[in-house]
């Protein structure tokens, strides 16, 4: 009823206006900590639909609620194209938002001079990531993902590889191995040997061929893939013997780690990607939020601060499979992790950025009524084929199905089911990425620099500038993480006190 009263809308807008006036002064502190939340495939339609889903899961209409990312004060758009692709992939984009350089699709941690799949174009074309810049500045660093830890997004943080699919040497062509290229799992262990926190899936790429998996010993497809006979997990454990390092592979082990006594954590919870959150075994598999909480508690002990990359990586997988319900629940879970990170850190000294690498050809429409289930039907049947249709549709993908030469009547199937594949205009085994700009949400020190419409590779330059790492150090007073970025002394004293209090 209150929505029918103009007073409701006017007073809400006035409150918003007042808050906007109060946040006019940009935060120009030094960012002690940097967190990047990357929703893989989380285009703007996915954000909007995830917001509605989040509201509906708590019994509301949905459209009016706020995601945690919606609460960030600064928003900009990111142009996602790769140097050789109008519609990009996750590898070339990861190189942009982690290394600050646009690149070719399918390549990670190398410039556009490198050619996908051609090993001999690697050398001399490597580019380093903000994770490395932060590590070199004395910060603790971490990677948390719902995909394999050597998947496209995380790998651009530590690897230099002309093919994102070279997960282990078992997936590499003989020629690439002869030319001296290293697989991504090996690069994870060797390139930046002291990454403090690594969590996600991908056990099989760390283990020798025919080594059975600890969780699925009977299943051949989950066995090790390495041809070089190395057990990278055991090597990691041995290297950390006296260094407060812990290896865990299930939720119980993860939650039994005491963050105050752990300096290194390797958590590999599946042989491949983690399961979808909707399908997760809540007793044995950690959620993204649980992983993020442990990561931050370990990383934040460093007085110099930390850099953390968090990937909600299976939003992308849900969309590729045409399974909007899986994708949107993945996005809601990532938003929950954003909220948890916000409680564990302070916007005073922590720059948090939330963005996507690219979009998908996912959308929802059809003049649905207020509060209509996000997975529900449009209120009318088609005036062409006289059949109902779901609000959510894909431009292409596996949801294209014909019965007797015409479109499936969706009222005869369970379109609310977790794995329901929404209808698509063009049949494809895998739905494709979308090419439109994606949102960048930012809060904390120097967040105001993420404004306007920018190239995707601008993101790590802002983050590095805010934290005084990488190539942007000239504006920083000294190496001390408690100093401020060239502002008046009173605020400086305040920052030092605040930093001291937060430790």
Please provide a brief summary of the model.
The protein is α/β, with parallel strands linked by helices and 503 residues long. Helix content is 28%, strand content 16%.
List keywords for this structure.
alpha/beta; 16% strand; 14 helices; 503 residues; glycoprotein; ten-stranded mixed β-sheet; three-stranded mixed β-sheet
Would you kindly provide a written description of the structure presented here, covering whatever features stand out?
The structure is a single chain. The protein is built from 14 helices and 17 strands. It has helices spanning about 5-20, 45-55, 90-100, 130-135, 150-155, 175-180, 185-190, 230-240, 250-255, 290-300, 315-320, 325-345, 460-465, 490-500; strands spanning about 35-40, 75-80, 140-150, 195-200, 245-250, 265-270, 305-310, 350-355, 360, 360-365, 390-395, 400-405, 405, 425, 435, 440-445, 455. The model is unreliable at about 480-485 and about 485-503 (pLDDT under 50). Helix 10 packs parallel to helix 12 (about 325-345). Helix 9 (about 250-255) links the parallel strand 5 (about 245-250) and strand 6. With about 500 residues, it is an alpha/beta fold. The termini are far apart. A ten-stranded mixed beta sheet has the order 5-6-4-3-7-1-8-16-2-17, sandwiched between helices. Strands 10-11-14 form a three-stranded mixed beta sheet. It is found in: Cell membrane.
